[in-house]
């Protein structure tokens, strides 16, 4: 699907709101500007939430996909 | 693909007035998420809400008998909140936590810690501390300096969004 250079992978599968967002925040702190974080969640609410988080924090949503009940988001640290 | 970030962070103020479990839960979810979204978040903790921020292991707070009675009848601490309805003498919260565990929903106490970790400010109400006899050392670590209504109102007028929970 893509061959992005993912610096950090966060697995938020099975977690409910607001944990996926909190995991995203904790994760993005550990990577540097320009680096990519991939986060996977199963909570359907996380789709809109990640978009909102991305807009609010300025960390760009590079890619997002869904399949097998999982939602995958790739974000770039601003 | 997404908009450029705003220059100034958005400000959120939550007046944490209630102490019931479901209300505390809402406060902590909103506070921790706002903090995670880089919103400058302040929670003004007053009245029943202040009981939530007493250390879990502190069973009785207060100086005089009425204050002590209050804490005896309604145990302080984030882990001891009651539901506003269907409390069933403790069965209600127990069931809530069972459901939370099953659906991987974080508990209010954990969300409180996460909120503090992302920079949310929790300010205790000085007046409530005096009236309920709750001292600084009774409260959990990491709270801001006690403030009053004027500070709360100042924060509210400057905030982008204010909530009364």
Write out the strand line-up for the largest beta sheet of chain A, numbering strands in chain order: 1-2-4-3
The CATH topology annotation of chain B reads as Hypothetical Protein Ychn, Chain: A
The low-confidence runs of chain A, each spanning 5 or more residues with pLDDT under 50, are none
Q: Radius of gyration of chain A over alpha carbons? A: 11 Å
Outline type of chain B: globular
Structural class of chain B: alpha/beta
SSE string of chain A, helix = H, strand = E? EHEHEE
CATH homology superfamily name of chain B: DsrEFH-like
Work out the strand percent of chain B.
Answer: 5-15%
Largest sheet of chain A: 4 strands, mixed
Structure annotation, total helices of chain B = 7
Oligomer classification: heterodimer
Shape of chain A: globular
Descriptive report:
The complex is a heterodimer of chains A (78) and B (165). Helix content of chain A is 28%, strand content 36%. Chain A is an alpha+beta fold. Chain A has a single domain (6-76), classed as Translation Initiation Factor IF3 (2-Layer Sandwich), CATH 3.30.110.40. A 4-stranded mixed β-sheet of chain A has the order 1-2-4-3, covered by helices on one side. Chain A is globular. Chain B is α/β, with parallel strands linked by helices and 165 residues long. Chain B has a single domain (11-164), classed as Hypothetical Protein Ychn, Chain: A, CATH 3.40.1260.10. Chain B is built from 7 helices and 4 strands; from the N terminus they run E-H-E-H-H-H-H-E-H-H-E. Chain B has helices spanning 21-36, 48-52, 65-73, 91-102, 108-117, 126-132, 149-158; strands spanning 11-16, 40-45, 121-124, 161-164. In chain B, strands 3-2-1-4 form a 4-stranded parallel β-sheet, with helices on both faces. In chain B, strand 1 (11-16), helix 1 (21-36) and strand 2 (40-45) form a beta-alpha-beta unit. The longest helix of chain B is centred in the first third of the chain and has 16 residues, at 21-36. Chain B is globular. Chain B starts with 10 loop residues before the first strand and ends with a strand. Classes of the chains: A alpha+beta (78), B alpha/beta (165). The A-B interface holds A 14-19, 21-22, 24-26, 51-58, 60-62, 78 and B 1-5, 10, 29, 32-33, 35-39, 103-106, 111, 114, 117-118.
